[in-house]
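Worked problem 6 (solution included).
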Amino acid sequence: MRAYIQVNKKGEFYNVNAFIAYEGFSSLGWETFKFYDLTEIKGQIPEELVVGGIGNVRKRLEILGVVRSQGEIDYPTSLSSYFGRKIWASTI
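Solution. The predicted structure is:
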């Protein structure tokens, strides 16, 4: 299994979540690769995870042909007992 973790221009993890993901996947024995630009990731294997900003994740899903027809909050209702909080769409 492979995980691609986003880094900044200096090659450092772009935030603490990216670092934690890198550590976690590495400890599980996954091959981990750093990327700055999504075009660096070759191949279209859905099982290879991308950890990065929202734009990169959306673009990767698009490349893989995953259609997101719902809004931003699209958690399955069957998982609602695991949320630990109420989640809803609203406006400011």
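Discussion: The CA atoms of residues 73 and 89 lie 7 Å apart.
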